Automatic annotation (TrEMBL):
Protein's GO biological process: transcription initiation at mitochondrial promoter
Keyword Zinc carried by entry: no
Organism phylogeny: Eukaryota, Fungi, Dikarya, Ascomycota, Saccharomycotina
Keywords: Methyltransferase, RNA-binding, S-adenosyl-L-methionine, Transferase
Gene designation per UniProt: SMKI13G3490
Taxonomy, superkingdom: Eukaryota
Record's protein name: Mitochondrial transcription factor 1
Binding-site residues, S-adenosyl-L-methionine: K50, L52, E106, D130, N166
PANTHER family: DIMETHYLADENOSINE TRANSFERASE, DIMETHYLADENOSINE TRANSFERASE 1, MITOCHONDRIAL
GO MF entries: mitochondrial transcription factor activity; RNA binding; rRNA (adenine-N6,N6-)-dimethyltransferase activity
Family: Belongs to the class I-like SAM-binding methyltransferase superfamily. rRNA adenine N(6)-methyltransferase family.
Length: 370
């Protein structure tokens, strides 16, 4: 239940408040306070995560995202915020769009206490649950029914449900891979349709995620991303990092660059924000996963010699079926999404293909850096 006992909006004049937010269910709208860097810097534990604290940078980010194109009626929008940390993004977002429901999922002790102290008398819903635990979502949605998104058809981005997350800590890539696989399997939060996700991560992870075919950073992570999503780099905390991204993509994305002084803690590796939209696909996901997983283990080995990794007799079969012999000269790291799909369809037609259900290869393992 929303507690309408809040401080007057004039105390937070730096917030961006849109006209459509000035009334909420017939009551005068009061903004959510935005934590200051003075308060944020008092926190001792950030658990290896980093957070952008500068509201002005968030204003630029939301201007660039232009979310009202997707969410034309923000008053019906529900937002699930995973690992919100100090909640600056949460407060700026709420003040700007006034969604119907904004739920913050945060279990880490010092950050949860900070959020409770900041937002206890605000419309932000703070839930002490673990975003990493899959049961959190079944409890939240199906059992306790605290947060129940609307199911929408897959011919458009769900315009009443948005997920935002911060996984800037070490070891985030595995979790991102799991979330990406959920898009392909249409489970977890993606059973509600094509759900947009705004995702903060280390810039090194963003570089791997966004790598194009033939680039050094190409990995299973970027292959999955390309197959299931349209993902863009929105913002990054270090201009020097941009040199490591594909120049053609950077020209298209034109990401916002902010200073390390705008995030807290300021020390350590840069972070980046990506916008991830699920896309349509029409291939068998299980066969595709098997093919891409095995080929990317030996991603720098030409197809002319690597196809036995898909099963005994694979090289002879694929050599006879692949009509474009130039494709056999390519290595898996050079393959485009369409080429992986082509190989998957050939694999599906293979009379002697192995039983993929008996495959136990680690899906995150790749040759060298993976």
């Amino acid at each position: 239940m929303i507690n309408h006992k809040r401080k007057d909006i004039t105390e937070y004049s730096s917030c961006v408040i849109h006209d459509n937010c000035l009334k909420l269910s017939g009551l005068a709208y009061m903004s959510v306070p935005i934590p200051s860097i003075k308060d944020i810097s008092k926190l001792k534990f950030f658990y290896g995560f980093k957070y952008l604290w500068n509201p002005k940078v968030y204003d630029k980010i939301f201007d660039k995202l232009d979310l009202t194109k997707t969410y034309k009626n923000p008053k019906k929008l529900k937002v699930l915020d995973l690992y919100p940390g100090v909640g600056v993004q949460s407060a700026v977002f709420y003040n700007r769009y006034c969604p119907k429901q904004y739920s913050l999922i945060e279990k880490r002790s010092s950050l949860y206490k900070f959020l409770r102290a900041q937002y206890e008398e605000s419309p932000l819903q703070i839930l002490k649950k673990d975003p990493y635990d899959w049961s959190t979502y079944s409890n939240l949605i199906d059992e306790e029914r605290i947060f129940v998104p609307e199911i929408q058809t897959s011919n458009h981005i769900n315009d009443s449900f948005l997920t935002v997350a911060n996984v800037t800590g070490e070891g985030s890539e595995g979790l991102i891979m799991q979330w990406l696989s959920c898009i392909g399997n249409k489970n977890w939060l993606y059973r509600f349709g094509k759900v947009k996700m705004l995702l903060w991560m280390p810039s090194t992870t963003a570089r791997k995620l966004l790598a194009r075919a033939g680039t050094h950073s190409r990995s299973k992570c970027s292959v999955v991303r390309e197959a299931f999503t349209d993902t863009k780099l929105i913002a990054i905390s270090d201009a020097d990092e941009l040199e490591k991204f594909d120049s053609q993509c950077l020209n298209e994305w034109d990401p916002i660059v902010f200073s390390a002084a705008d995030m807290w803690p300021t020390k350590g590796k840069p972070i980046a924000l990506v916008e991830m939209d699920p896309i349509d696909f029409d291939f068998d996901v299980e066969n595709w996963d098997y093919v891409t997983r095995h080929l990317m283990i030996l991603k720098r080995t030409p197809l002319s010699t690597v196809m036995d990794s898909l099963g005994h007799g694979g090289q002879q079969y694929f050599n006879s079926r692949i009509t474009n012999k130039d494709l056999l000269k390519k290595c898996p790291i050079d393959l485009t999404n369409d080429e992986f799909i082509y190989l998957t369809r050939l694999f599906a037609e293979w009379p002697f293909k192995p039983d993929i259900l008996l495959d136990f290869v680690d899906m995150y393992q790749t040759e060298h850096s993976g």
